[in-house]
TrEMBL record, chain A:
GO BP terms: Golgi vesicle transport; macroautophagy
Name the UniProt record assigns to this protein: Trafficking protein particle complex subunit BET3
The entry's keywords: Endoplasmic reticulum, ER-Golgi transport, Golgi apparatus, Transport
InterPro entries found in the cross-reference section: Bet3, NO_sig/Golgi_transp_ligand-bd, TRAPP_component
GO CC terms: endoplasmic reticulum; Golgi apparatus; TRAPP complex
Domain of life where this protein originates: Eukaryota
Family designation: Belongs to the TRAPP small subunits family. BET3 subfamily.
Record CDD domains: TRAPPC3_bet3
Compartments in which it is found: Endoplasmic reticulum; Golgi apparatus, cis-Golgi network
SUPFAM superfamilies per record: Ligand-binding domain in the NO signalling and Golgi transport
Lineage: Eukaryota, Fungi, Dikarya, Ascomycota, Saccharomycotina
Source organism: Lachancea meyersii CBS 8951
Predominant subcellular localization, coarse grouping: endoplasmic reticulum
Automatic annotation (TrEMBL), chain B:
Alphabetized Gene3D superfamilies for the sequence: Trafficking protein particle complex subunit 3
The keyword Endoplasmic reticulum is assigned to this record: yes
Single Gene Ontology BP annotation: endoplasmic reticulum to Golgi vesicle-mediated transport
Protein name: LAME_0H10792g1_1
Biased composition (Polar residues): 1-18
Name of one Pfam family that matches: TRAPP
Family: Belongs to the TRAPP small subunits family. BET3 subfamily.
Gene Ontology CC annotation, any one: TRAPPIII protein complex
UniProtKB/TrEMBL annotation, chain C:
Annotated GO biological process: endoplasmic reticulum to Golgi vesicle-mediated transport
SUPFAM superfamilies: SNARE-like (SSF64356)
Gene3D superfamilies: 3.30.450.70
Pfam families xref list: Sedlin_N
Protein's name in the database: LAME_0H17766g1_1
Species for this entry: Lachancea meyersii CBS 8951
Alphabetized InterPro entries for the sequence: Longin-like_dom_sf, Sedlin
GO cellular component, one term: cytoplasm
Length: 202, 290, 170
């Protein structure tokens, strides 16, 4: 399997299919699962508790969610590499594909779309058609402007990418919860970090 | 502005819903059935200025009422490891915000309680729905039927609403509501079977009544799912599950106190017992009913 | 028939209220309108009594007073919909309990002013309550909603009124 993974983006049409099949197989046969609604409800209780703790200072809530996500991301990447044994991505395009088709799939069972590439190919967007974090959520009026409800995802991506030597900015550009057309996560690569520590397992 | 000092927890920018401003307990019941005033003169009425500028150019905020309670309406699972990561953060968030172990446990308990009160309504309501109702392909066909059913103008009255009613309500698939549980044993069995299966994919390992105390029951879990990844020794993270249990019992009007105790056994090192201690009034009510 | 509907929380506080009236429906007589909340609250004691009875549902059309002694001929084994629980002059009061013991209560008025009791269409009224129950469950699923807080969403309000039109406008 991993042999077909190493092809560059030019051959992505064939690797795309196999990456999907590869991820579906991991999800179906090699992943312990839990009720998605418990996940949704637990996250909901975290966010609503933070809003109370920070006295509805939503900028602080966003920041806290981000940092919780970061803590998750730096640990999650090891789990991810151990389960997939994928080789290092040789391009940001490849990275984006692995994030959407593989990482989102085997953790959250969704496959978001990738798009909105910048002209110099250093940033892209992840469009979440389905978001298991935000089912049954209706933002209160005072939160609708500032709160990025699913901001924990930004932190997760930031932390995980940093552990594979990619220094990125990750942020929400829009969210259907706020009345936007799409839920769009923006990822911008700043630089590849020096390879001081070996990435993940090996 | 002054009447908005108490910020409503669930409300939507009124620009999105001309013709209705929702229930306001400071005013009381509002009259009439929806007669649609076509003018959007209520735009932004009375709501603090800031919010309306930010959302004015976008779609109406989505509403929970447009989502389906049907469990088949969306993905049913996420990976256990995703949940484990989230749960670990819930625990460390509680730890960072607390000064003592008991405060950490209290916060975990509170998070669980938030979930328990929701599960009581959700799971009972769902089990009232006849099996197979609204599943997959039939739901689309059902939509066209319901869309035509209400006497024409009910929907014509309100264009914006008709477009959002794309799922039949689950209530239409109910012939008999599941009974409310009236006895402590009944509601505990609901937790032991329905709730445990929903949360952890299996019933709990046992439900027993205390032989010493009349108001005590014990739910036993030999391999608690959520805390298997938590290595902490001093904090009992299953207080989260205590909160779920207590939230269910409390809102079903069985006020009680739920605690958890580790009882490691050779083959089940993480085995726990949840002890449910009902308040005296629950037993008094039982005695009256008997 | 004009109706006054309320959801009463665990602290006996209304979390939602609505009057279903329209030109076709008639209005509440002015002298009764103001009394509705009091009439409704007066029946809460009966409802709390029925709450813990094994077979609380009153037989449809039974017209004895008192309300809570009629428990024999319930058409189903259900104990969420309680049927007609009380009456007050020409008004009938029906009740429904959610699993979290939110009290759904409605005062039904008749169009005639001669004091004859309002007939209750149990099937329609029960369907109305069950649909509103579903809307309530959705309200509760929102993590930002706190138990026993007023439901201020305009969408909820609109949905409830459409349901009233569908099930109660007769």
């Amino acid at each position: 399997m991993s042999a077909s993974m190493s092809g560059n983006t030019a051959s992505s049409s064939s690797s795309k299919k196999s990456l999907k099949a590869f991820s579906d197989d991991i999800w179906k046969n090699k992943t312990a699962k839990i009720n998605a609604e418990l996940f949704t409800l637990t996250y909901g209780s975290i966010v609503s508790q933070l809003c109370t703790d920070y006295e509805r200072d939503f900028a602080k809530v966003n920041k806290q969610l981000y940092s919780m996500g970061y803590n998750i991301g730096v640990r999650l990447i090891e789990d991810f590499l151990a389960r997939t044994a994928l080789p290092r991505c040789d391009s940001l395009a490849k990275t984006s594909e692995v994030i959407s088709k593989c990482a989102f799939k085997i953790f959250l069972n969704v496959t978001p779309q990738i798009g909105n590439w910048s002209s110099n190919k250093d940033s892209f967007s992840i469009f979440l058609d389905e978001n298991p974090l935000s089912e049954f959520v209706e933002l209160p009026m005072d939160a609708a402007r500032e709160l990025w409800y699913s901001n924990i995802l930004c932190g997760v991506l930031k932390g995980a990418l940093e552990m594979v030597q990619m220094d990125c900015d990750v942020y929400f550009a829009s969210d259907v919860l706020k009345g936007d057309q799409t839920t769009e996560l923006r990822v911008k690569l700043n630089k590849i970090l020096k390879d001081e520590i070996p990435a993940g397992e090996d | 502005m002054s009447q908005k000092i108490i910020s409503p927890s669930t409300s939507v920018n009124s620009t999105a819903h001309p013709g209705s401003t929702g229930y306001d307990y400071t005013i009381g019941p509002q009259q009439t059935l929806p007669e649609l005033p076509v003018s959007s003169s209520t735009t932004g009425g009375g709501i603090g200025g800031g919010a309306s500028t930010a959302v004015s150019t976008t779609l109406p905020l989505p509403s929970v009422y447009n989502e389906s309670l049907n469990p088949n309406a969306r993905n049913q699972h996420v990976s256990l490891s995703a949940y484990a990561f989230l749960f670990q953060e819930l625990v460390s968030q509680a730890r960072n915000a607390s000064k003592s172990v008991s405060e950490i446990e209290l916060r975990l308990h509170r998070s669980g309680y938030h979930i328990g009160i929701r599960l009581l309504e959700l799971l009972n309501f769902r089990s009232s729905v006849s099996a197979g109702f609204g599943s997959s392909s039939s739901s689309k066909a059902f939509f066209s039927k319901t869309a035509m059913n209400p006497s024409g103008n009910a929907l014509a009255l309100n264009g914006s609403l008709s477009s959002t009613q794309d799922e039949p309500s689950l209530a239409q698939g109910i012939s008999h509501m599941k009974r409310r549980d009236l006895k402590p044993v009944e509601i505990l069995q609901f937790i032991h079977s329905t709730v445990w299966s929903y949360l952890f994919g299996r019933v709990s390992d046992d439900l027993v009544k205390s032989s010493e105390r009349e108001n005590e029951f014990m739910l036993i879990d030999s391999a608690p799912m959520l805390t298997q990844f938590i290595s902490s020794t001093n904090v009992q993270c299953d207080f989260f599950v205590c909160g779920i249990i207590e939230g269910i019992l409390d809102s079903a009007s069985f006020p009680c106190n739920v605690t958890v105790h580790s009882v490691p056994e050779p083959n089940f090192e993480q085995k726990v017992v949840f002890v449910v201690k009902f308040e005296p009034q629950v037993l008094e009510r039982e005695a009256l009913r008997a | 028939m004009p109706c006054y509907f309320a959801i009463i929380g665990a602290l006996d506080n209304p979390i939602y209220e609505a009057e279903f009236t329209s030109p076709q429906f008639n209005q509440f007589p002015p002298e009764l309108k103001e009394l509705n909340p009091f009439i409704l609250h007066a029946s809460l004691d009966i409802l709390e009594d029925l709450q813990w009875q094994t077979h609380p549902q009153s037989g449809a059309g039974t017209e004895t007073s008192g309300g809570f002694l009629r428990s024999r001929h319930s058409s189903s084994n259900s104990n969420c919909y309680l049927g007609k629980i009380d009456h007050f002059y020409g008004l009938a009061i029906t009740g429904y309990l959610s699993y979290g013991n939110m009290k759904f209560v409605m005062v039904h008025s008749s169009n005639s002013s001669n004091g004859t009791p309002v007939p209750i269409d149990d099937v329609a009224v029960k369907s109305f309550y069950q649909e509103v129950h579903e809307l309530y469950v959705k309200t509760l699923m929102n993590p930002f909603y706190k138990l026993n807080e007023p439901i201020t969403s305009p969408v909820f309000d609109k949905r409830v009124r459409l349901l009233a039109k569908k099930y109660l406008a007769k």
